[in-house]
Amino acid sequence: MKNFNKLLFILLANIIFLSSAQAATYYVNSSIGNDSNTPVQARNISTPWLTVQFAIDNSAVLDGDNIVVAAGTYAGFTLTKRLNIIGAWKGGTSTVNTIFNSTVNLSAAGGSATSRMLLKNLRVASTANDAIDIYDSYITLENVFATTTQYDGLRFNSSTIKDVLIESCNFNNNGYAGIFVPTFVDIDGWVMRNSTANNNNYFGIAAFQSRTTTT
């Protein structure tokens, strides 16, 4: 009986631990959302928040949580936490897609291979500056389309960036480059699969080397 009770306690403790570690999901909707809603309300798809930046900045939203963004057009944002930003992607118009019409900045400090900034199933279509700027490490882009009429679809903007995974993305039709890596940037671990960087005004992928000797 003692062993049984001990085993039961361990099982219950593990269940509680797993429950407490489970990520929360918050909803954003440009049509029916309201940033006055509480975090508890925003976890219900029927009572979402209005803007992505408000969701990111809310103190209830923690690293590892999900922000699910309904189809529609939104302002860009600065991601300062290790969150999963998940949109809707079904075609070429905002009525069935999640589209951001200004720059998205990825700048959450810290992170690890299992604590990432994720963008998934969305489009960034900007008319100024870059579409997506990366300022920190441990990034996943999955099914993301990034285009801007001025500069770069994706630009790396920090001296050292680690572990970038790009899967099924499109960096086409940009004013300068599809993907731009300046001379001051050192990337340690960059995987790119099933993605394109076509029909850009100057470069598909521009990666400039500042060293006189490569290693």
What does this structure look like?
- With 215 residues, this protein is α/β, with parallel strands linked by helices.
- Helices cover 14% and strands 34% of the residues.
- The protein is built from three helices and 15 strands.
- It has helices at 2-21, 39-42, 52-57; strands at residues 25-28, 66-69, 72-74, 78-79, 84-86, 98-100, 104-106, 117-126, 132-134, 139-148, 154-156, 160-167, 177-181, 186-193, 203-207.
- The strands form two sheets. Strands 1, 2, 3, 5, 6, 8, 10, 12 and 14 form a nine-stranded parallel beta sheet that branches. Strands 4-7-9-11-13-15 form a six-stranded parallel beta sheet, with no helix packed on it.
- The radius of gyration is 20 Å and the shape is globular.
- The model is unreliable at 4-20 (pLDDT under 50).
Order of helices and strands: HEHHEEEEEEEEEEEEEE
Oligomeric state of the chains in view? single chain
Radius of gyration: 20 Å
The secondary-structure class comes to alpha/beta
Give the arrangement of secondary structure elements.
Elements: H1 2-21, E1 25-28, H2 39-42, H3 52-57, E2 66-69, E3 72-74, E4 78-79, E5 84-86, E6 98-100, E7 104-106, E8 117-126, E9 132-134, E10 139-148, E11 154-156, E12 160-167, E13 177-181, E14 186-193, E15 203-207
Parallel strand pairs: 1-2, 2-5, 3-6, 4-7, 5-8, 6-8, 7-9, 8-10, 9-11, 10-12, 11-13, 12-14, 13-15
What can be said about this structure in brief?
The protein is α/β, with parallel strands linked by helices and 215 residues long. The chain is built from 3 helices and 15 strands. It has helices at residues 2-21, 39-42, 52-57, and strands at 25-28, 66-69, 72-74, 78-79, 84-86, 98-100, 104-106, 117-126, 132-134, 139-148, 154-156, 160-167, 177-181, 186-193, 203-207.
